[in-house]
Design goal:
Layout: E1 4-6, E2 12-14, E3 20-26, H1 40-52, E4 57-61, H2 74-91, E5 96-99, H3 103-111, E6 116-119, H4 129-135, E7 139-143, H5 161-178, E8 186-189, H6 198-206, E9 218-221, H7 226-232, H8 240-252, E10 255-260, H9 263-284
Parallel strand pairs: 3-4, 3-10, 4-5, 5-6, 6-7, 7-8, 9-10
Antiparallel strand pairs: 1-2
């Protein structure tokens, strides 16, 4: 696996040590977690606060892709994103990720200083996305999902979810490389909760190490998701403890980047977990 991710600015994300925390900044009015919704200056302030709390990457999104969500036109997406991205960039050089499926949006955001395109369709919904990211030397996050956000949770089924997600992600990565995006700019995401049943999510977390084939770093987004609620019986506002439990499993099985709402709590958790694991490995050696 690549131990560093080369950003288009020349900066490097180091994945050889403590796993990195990516802070979620939602500029959508319909995010599944209402407390995460923020707009304009409030969103900028949240992003800068996340940096102070230890976030290594900021991920800004303007179109909810939760189950049942509606499509947002590119014009509206840009209207939501531009003041936030410009505000962050005026104040910080933090690596900046944009959660979008649209090349039109990605192009403008890269011009405004974004480093990473986090595409829930793995660069497949928009045929212009892959060549754009290759040309602009963007880092890409390739995620697995089954179906479209509006209907993806309507009776999803897999014969072998680990094998199917592995094959999809491997194919998406090979397609990206063939299109001009080098391996050191590719991150894979199993898409926890995107067209998956509870048992599918659990199996993926239990076998994460099989998904990247050891070649690509894995990003996992499980923050406060419905599978945590299904296990704990808690509403979204009370799912942080369950999220941290699932985070431990993700870290144990190879996650290198965690996409989260609760930055400070996750950063502290990851630092403690990683320190204990490092001590164990040192003793084993």
């Amino acid at each position: 696996m690549n131990r560093t991710i080369q950003l288009r600015t020349g900066a490097v994300l180091d994945l050889s040590g403590t796993p990195l925390v990516m802070a979620i900044i939602n500029t959508t009015p319909d995010s599944f977690y209402p407390a995460s919704r923020a707009f304009a200056e409030d969103a900028v302030a949240r992003a800068l606060a996340a940096v102070e709390k230890g976030a290594a990457i900021i991920d800004v999104g303007a179109e909810s892709t939760r189950p049942g969500s509606d499509y947002v036109p590119a014009e509206e997406e840009l209207k939501r994103l531009l003041p936030v991205v410009r505000g962050i960039r005026r104040r910080s050089n933090i690596p900046l990720s944009i959660d979008t499926r649209k090349a039109e949006v990605a192009r403008v955001m890269l011009e405004e200083g974004a480093d990473i395109i986090n595409d829930v369709s793995a660069l497949m919904d928009d045929p212009a996305m892959l060549p754009l990211c290759a040309q602009e030397k963007a880092v890409v996050v390739l995620m697995h999902k089954k179906g479209i956000p509006r209907t993806m949770q309507e009776a999803p089924y897999y014969d072998d979810v680990v094998q199917e997600v592995h094959e999809f992600l491997w194919g998406a990565a090979q397609r990206a490389e063939a299109g001009g995006i080098p391996a050191e700019r590719i991150i894979l995401d199993p898409g926890i909760g995107f067209g998956k049943r509870l048992e599918d999510n659990l199996r993926l977390l239990a076998h994460l190490e099989k998904l990247g084939n050891g070649n690509y770093p894995l990003l996992v987004g499980l923050s406060r998701k419905s599978f945590v609620g299904a296990i704990t019986g808690k509403e979204v506002e009370r799912r942080l403890p369950g999220t941290l439990g699932a985070t431990a499993a993700a870290l144990s099985h190879g996650a290198r980047i965690l996409r989260v709402h609760d930055v400070e709590e996750t950063v502290d958790f990851v630092r403690c977990f990683h320190s204990i694991e490092a001590a164990r490995r040192s003793q084993d050696d």
